[in-house]
Design goal:
The protein is an alpha+beta fold. It has five helices and 14 strands. It binds zinc ion.
Length: about 220
């Protein structure tokens, strides 16, 4: 299915889908569960537009490439260009808030990490980034917003943006010092603890506090 940014009631945003800039280990409890040190500065990587699929449709998980892990993350849709931006400019550039799954080939990532190679194959493969529709940022407290993931009826991830090591606005500002963020780009803000494998036929419910609830499944 062709992906285009949209609102929950199906209104399309004009901007083309751009890149997805992601941050690793932005929640201390998740860094700890994978035995990773907490980074001193944000650890960034990018998923290309070819990795993005709509979260509202069943999403395909790769076969024969080892474990595929879910990582539930708050997603920020960018609506204004940000280059070397301060936090005040960053807040004005947020066009929408949504949810993303940072699907990860965990066995492959472990092997790449061990040999000191980049993570792209494990993080940026086709379909590696299901994105939800985006709601208005108005009335959402970016510093205190819960995200949850339920898999087959069982609560697997529950976190709050208050736990982020680098909060959303500081993160956008930091990213923009390296990568210009353009309208249609998305930033994934890191995952709380509880990551685990996702398999074909799993049923997922992904929630952003009381603002957004997506029911989907893997195939
Ligand atoms: Zn992630």
């Amino acid at each position: 299915m062709v992906y285009q940014h949209q609102t929950p009631d199906g209104q399309l945003f004009d901007w083309p889908l751009g890149k997805v800039v992601c941050v690793g280990r932005n929640y201390a409890d998740h860094a700890k569960e994978l035995n990773n040190p907490v980074p001193a500065v944000p650890l960034l990587f990018i998923k290309p537009a070819s990795a993005v699929v709509p979260m509202t449709a069943p999403f395909r998980v790769p076969r024969d490439l080892g474990q595929v892990h879910f990582e539930t993350e708050m997603a920020i849709l960018i609506g204004q260009t940000l280059t070397d931006a301060e936090e005040e400019a960053a807040v004005a550039a947020i066009a929408g808030i949504g949810l993303g799954l940072d699907l990860t080939l965990r066995d492959l990532q472990d092997a790449l990490k061990k040999s000191g190679h980049p993570w792209e194959k494990a993080k940026s493969f086709d379909g590696a980034c299901p994105l939800s529709p985006f709601i208005s940022p108005d009335g959402i407290d970016l510093t205190d917003c819960e995200i949850r993931l339920t898999v087959n009826g069982e609560l697997r991830q529950q976190g709050n943006s208050a736990q982020m090591l680098t909060p959303v606005l500081a993160l956008l500002s930091y990213i923009s010092k390296f990568f210009t963020l353009n309208p249609g780009d998305v930033v994934l803000t890191g995952t709380p603890a509880g990551v685990g494998p996702v398999r074909p036929e799993d049923r997922l419910v992904v929630e952003l506090a009381e603002h957004l609830r997506i029911e989907t499944s893997a195939c």
